Amino acid sequence: AGAETVKRAVQLDVASRFQESLVCYQEGIDLLLQVVKATTDEAKKRRYRQKISEYTFLSDGKYHKQIRIEENATGFGYEKLFHEYLTEIVSEVWVEDPYIRQVHQASRYLLYNFLRFCEMLVKGPCKVRTIHLLTSYDKGGGSSQQMTALEEIKQSLSNYGVTLNIDFSSSIHDREIRFNNGWMIKIGRGLDYFKKPQGHFSIGYCDFDLRPCHETTVDVFHTKHTKKM
Q: Residue 133 in contact with residue 168, Cβ under 8 Å?
């Protein structure tokens, strides 16, 4: 019953019915706490405690959920990670990541990762019309490649009715993604939490759900207003 109540709370959160969701969360957690006290199965106790620890509530109704991605874990493609927050009312997205600047950097495919993220937004179910990217300018030999790639992504998005606004900052260090329905996602490694594929024709090269991940932490918040850069 506690798990079902928490699931209902998540559904209410996604529907922006925050006061109702807060009541459900509180009821669900109380039920789960009762189960933890009653059960003698240590494995079940650990599962229930993990479920309870995923949700932190602040007095003003803000929401916080933490997801831990283990080293070499799979099943964390962008669609799986973001889908429940990309409701139909999402029309504007802010991406803040200092390293969206090289196609290849020490086994990282940062610009390709950003492109995959944009592809997810285009597919929906959200109706994104504007994406704001704040990143750092590549002052090294990859500057031309960075600008060429970003302009190509920008032009390609325009074919789908999506505007990409690109800004640069020399002091940016935070990594976060914000949607105009109030959701904010902070990923320790930004969009670059996937490991290098073993080869161009290996499983996981195209499907990120099958790609092993680096260990990282994802923090999801909801506030009544999403700040702009």
A: no
